Amino acid sequence: MLLCVTASHKTASFDMLERLSRTPDDVAPNLLAIAPCVQGAVVLSTCNRFEAYVEIDEPVTAAGAVGVEAVLEAIEQSSGIPASDLDGSYAVHSGRRVAEHLFAVASGLESVVPGEGEIAGQVRRALTSARKEGTTSPELERLFQRASQAQRKVKNVTALGRAGRSLVRLSLELADSRIADWSAERVLLVGTGAYAAVTLATLRERGAKNISVYSPSGRAELFAKKHDIAPVAAEDYARTASRSTLLITCTTATEPVLGPAHLQAPTGPVAVGCPVGPHSQLVIDLGMPRNVDPAISELEGVALLDLETIRLHAPLEELQATDAARSVVREAADTFHVVGRQQSVTPAVVAMRSHIFSLLEAEIDRARARGDEDGRVEQALRHLSGVLLHTPTVRAHELAAEGRADDFVAALSTLYGIAPAAGASEESATA
What we know:
3 domains, elongated, 4-stranded antiparallel sheet, Beta Polymerase, domain 2
């Protein structure tokens, strides 16, 4: 069975999400080590959610409870966050609800800003990471691949996300009330990852021109050259920060990279046309965990806009577009489960066909021994076996789609004494 344990902006406090964002990448491997019944695990961690998708061996008694306990234990083992601290901060989805939830997440329906596009890439990277760690499973592979397909369909056939909405865009929309002329702003971008590139593009859309970049990891010069902006060296970081009027941080650092000391650094001679920082600075922190020390908001003339504040100002969902997107997601989830049920009956279909074919080959051998020189008897027998197999094969898949695969398996056992072989393939069933 599939299980999802999710802590998101809908269930957990900002502080808890920040603690979870510091969780190392070994949660999935720990999960498999903790519970032998766990066959696969994929962890999705973003700035507004932490989710573990798990496949559990179905026959296990109380498999759902065992799975949740294993997830909480793995989180505690990796992060040091006691399971008791997570009480009330997470939700659990199981069975068919898992696919619908992940498809909605991948499509941006569960994001702070409905329809934001960054989450789709994060979902894909979660699967890639699980593959590298060797923690994925065939069913989780199918689940995440179908999630990407559902996300693309939502993007192509609904209006959700067409405006290019994102946390970056929303944060700059909120900054509009403080900024009269974007071209006059002296902007410092802290970070050089994918979010930084999106932020830079959005700043330029709004007319920002005076943009520099600093990288705590030393990649500022490469990023600056690629995007035609000014790099900031480590020794100039504090001075540049104190002179900037708009500072945007978006790094993966686990500790703050901007604090009061940076904004209060001596500025030295101020260049002509350079805004003076201390009295009119807006800091936007897009990092999770926080990139900015909250204490800077106590400095005179400094305003801090962080993810928690952005979340509180997120716009209401566009109902029509969202309804259409949820319909696509539900349809994709239904298809996922129908296909899964049909695959679940495949071993039984393979066993039935193998049984019939073994009887067929025995009869053909006897026919040849009696002199079937022109092969007409063999041809007739093969045709007859195909006709006899057609109806039960079709019926097996119909029963599976209705959730009654066990009825077909029981019928085979009762009538023929046939038990499905483990690992039978779809190709064998249709051969």
